[in-house]
Design brief:
Elements lengths: L2 H26 L3 H8 L3 E4 L2 E11 L7 H5 L15 E4 L2 E5 L9 E9 L5 E3 L1 H8 L3 H4 L11 E3 L6 E5 L1 H15 L12 H4 L2 E6 L1
Length: 205
């Protein structure tokens, strides 16, 4: 195979991915809950490995569980304060920014997926990142696609169930904030029923 043919194939491949990515960018300029639901069933690829997304979680607005809300804009969370379609790697987990408001951090956490071809379930956000080999130093803060090496494609919209956060999870978030980040100082924003009853986790049926 000549170099010219190889280059042509690479350009064609990237053009196809660009078309897919642009379509998915529109999917991600939504509220976190809608974006999290729409990602179920889509293909997530990095470094030659691909999984079908089977579980996501939605974070954003004034949500105290969102890292950007919890810590504000810092060096570590700056990648959250951008329009939808950027990669945020934090604490070994993969998140994708959503919505088009760069002043308020909003994102979707990719929690689980099934390896394409084998159906092997990779459950847990850190395990998923390890399986795909995603590196924070390479992908964090960059756009989906060639820039970050993280690709999302496919029709998605696989049937899924949505579960509420519940008081237990909400209380754990508040206690975690209080214990680790404010050293005993209570979290200033109360975890109202809005967050306790918010549907945040979406799981493929």
């Amino acid at each position: 195979m000549t170099i010219f043919v190889m280059l042509f194939q690479k350009v064609y491949f990237l053009e196809q991915w660009e078309e897919i990515i642009m379509g998915n960018q529109k999917e991600l300029v939504k509220c976190p809950e809608e974006a999290a639901r729409s990602l179920i069933g889509k293909e997530l690829s990095y470094g030659g490995r691909t999984v079908i997304i089977t579980e996501t979680e939605a974070y954003g607005d004034e949500d105290p569980a969102c890292y950007g809300v919890r810590y504000g804009r810092t060096k570590n969370t700056a990648a959250l304060f951008v329009p939808g379609g950027n990669v945020f790697v934090y604490a070994g987990m993969l998140m994708i920014t959503v919505d088009d408001d760069s002043e308020k951090p909003k994102n979707v956490l990719i929690r689980a997926g099934k390896e394409k071809g084998t159906g092997k379930l990779i459950y847990g956000p850190c395990r998923l990142v390890d399986f795909l080999g995603i590196k924070k130093s390479i992908s964090n803060g960059k756009k989906l696609g060639e820039e970050s090496g993280v690709f999302i494609a496919g029709e998605g919209c696989m049937p899924c169930t949505a579960s509420k956060r519940g008081k237990l999870n909400a209380d754990k978030i508040a206690k975690d904030y209080e214990r680790r980040y404010k050293k005993g100082k209570a979290y200033s924003k109360s975890l109202t029923d809005e967050y306790v009853n918010k549907k945040w986790r979406f799981t493929a049926e």
